Amino acid sequence: MKTRFDVRWEDGKAKLYNLAAYSAVGGELAAIGTDSKNATLSTTGFMLYDKWGEWAGNVTDLTAYNIGGNNYIKLRDIAKLFDFDVDWRDGKAWIEPGVSPYTED
Question: Which residues does 100 contact at the CB level (< 8 Å), separation at least 6?
Answer without folding.
Answer: 84, 85, 87
